[in-house]
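Two proteins, back to back. First:
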Amino acid sequence: MQGQLSEIDIRSILQLIELGQRTGELFVEAYSSGVVNRRSRHHPSWFVFFLNGQIVYAGETESKLSRLRDYLHRYRAEATIDQIPASSIATFNTPEYGCLWALLENHLVTPAQGRSIIQGMVRETLFDLLSLPQGSFIFELGNPLTPQLLTMEIAPLATKILKQVQDWKQLHPHLHSPDQCPTIAESALLKNALPKATFQTLDRYADGQTSIRQIARYLNRDISTVARAIYPYIQRGWLQLTHNAVQHSAHSTSRSPLDLSPNTKALKVVCIDDSPTVCKAVELMLERNGYDISTIENPLSALSLVFQLKPDLILCDIGMPELDGYELCAMLRQSTAFRQTPIIMLTGKDGFIDRVRARMVGATDYLTKPFGEHEILMLLEKYIGVGRPEHLMTTQQVLDALEAELNLNAS
């Protein structure tokens, strides 16, 4: 299985691997066109290893041991890497994974620490992949990566990471890359606003050399949580963001090419569903996130109304009386006006056949009911962009988040 991310997104690829209980390796390259080239060094690229439809490990293809050092930092054990001879990891095609196993075998880290590190690496890699706007991929069946310390279920993990990506996107344009490095610009103002211990922790990491991504590794937190905590102070100019030139050169493959440009006008969405409950729920979710949403409960009148509304994206239920979603989607695709408009099918079924049939009639993607707000927002942002939310966290909420998330013991 291989192709372009313009044809199928990362989440759908992961779901297919999970449904088929596949064992093998997924390779993804950003901004690539045509044939996937495993030897290309011109674009960021990643791999994910699977065992029976579950994730074993994920990382960058040009993996350095610097990421592992960051994860070991939380245990004050980053220097243990220097005790591992190169011969101990030579048999692994992923040096980072091999080095971690050598640390385990030499009792330099515990199994619990090893599991926590792998979980963090997988989450971080999926954050980059699920943020990826375009690229190429190839999945190859093969022998499992051995040995395995753990396996991670895809569905709950992908849902959680998608929510983090959604949270991250709300922080644009002030934050646009996890590899930006915060530095303190107004020390006195920050010191007065924060508890002493919180300020000391922030002062330790906001040195212009340590990235948001690294801070998240050190604190065992996800990237979006750390970013939300510092966001208000970046807005006020008390913190500034820079790129560490050395880090940028050494770790260019860890860049997430996120396209988070804000919209200048409200994006139009039409939801066609014979359920008043679903229509009302979608209306509430999208209105408060800055989308111009119209709902249509009668599928027979939907065609004429959609032509009048001229939406940027259409949500369409599959199971409707008189005219089902498949028929409606096929009719819309016959018109040049909606040949390129994203059409997302809403279905109560989660079967593979339903997804294939939706693709055959021209659907862009699907969303299984019941769905949450972050799930529908992720699809909208993927295909038409971010809405215009009126507010984010309150100042007090962010102060609380800073104290909770950034307060480490000085010892």
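And the second protein:
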Amino acid sequence: MAGPKRLLALALAAPLLLSACSGGSDGGAASGGGSDLSFAVVTHGSAGDAFWDVVQNGAEAAGKDLGAEVDYQSDGDPQRQSQLIDAAVNAKVDGIVVSMANPDALQDSIKAAVAAGIPVVTINSGAAQSAEYGAIGHVGQDETIAGQGAGQRLAADGATKVLCVVHEAGNIGLEQRCDGASQGLGTDVTLVQVDINDLQAAQSTITSQLQSDPSIDGVLTLNSAVASIAASAVSDAGSDAEVATFDLNGDVIAAIQNGSIAFSVDQQQYEQGYLPIVMLQLYAKNLNTVGGGQPVLTGPGIVDADNVDEIADLASAGTR
């Protein structure tokens, strides 16, 4: 599934890049018509989060390639995220990209942006509410399908009783991942709630779960930072449980290489930053929409021992 989406990115960007390069001696992107546009990106990630850093890299790279101004801001508090959207509306930006981990909390702000004539593209979470709120498109992975893929892979590896570690309460996408994992595994996963802002406590919680139930033979985390502490928890508990995760960072890649993490479900978040800027540019310049009312999928793809070495260099460059 990943390959066609990468081709989509190139196909969407190519005509705009050509126009940006055809402006003659007066100067590239500006004469291509992109530099007069400004886009705001408002996500729910935490500062310094490896996943969202890659999203930001993608959005800013698209802005540079297309000659558009991109202002990226991120806040894990839904109320603060709504305020950032409102501020972008007040600034009269030409388009807004927003992740919707808590769609209900953002509904009024997104609808206000649409009512003000500002096109919105949603990313990552909240695909089901995207069109309802008036967005012109959604870019991300289908979390239920991704969860099913993870569950199926765990089942194929022999897992029968799996912990699904949720690190953000109220995040609808994480709930969908665990639900999908249950479907793919063929039996309900056991949910365990941890706080991503206290990884030491999270590790203790996972260790305790493994020690209290030795029949647990799989741990599925939904975040790359949590994956690393889950691998440590398995070691601390003396467990043989297989660890798998969603998303990549350098530690996860190293852990896949050394065998302490079996695989990662990669949603190619660089595309979740890059593609929406292209989509907003196309809409602003030509009233184009992408996806035909369906999400533009960036995943899932599996990174495991078979392909991790190829991915490692790209991750080091900040694009995977």
